[in-house]
Amino acid sequence: MTTDDVVHANYQIRLRLGEPPSPVPEPFAELLLAWIDNRDNMNTAANRDSRWLFPGRRAGAMTVRRPCPPAPGLLEEYAARFDDLFVSLAQRHGFREYLTAC
Length: 102
What we know:
Elements: E1 6-9, E2 12-15, E3 22-23, H1 28-37, H2 75-80, H3 89-101
Antiparallel strand pairs: 1-2, 2-3
């Protein structure tokens, strides 16, 4: 989503999630406009002219998957089958804790 998806029309803020753009109620509309004016991470050379509404720190760069503490015994082999379903280390670790408690 880019800043171009925030539409100012007829004294109302709309967000282009599809057609027609959806109205943004107050106080969220005010917060959204303040965010656009003060987005994080806009001073780096890579993001200086970014139109992204929520610019990333390393756009396009893959993060390194950190290893997860293994589940005990045979549960690790089972738990590892589901690793690709989880995005974060905390999710993978939580799943292993869940399996251990079962």
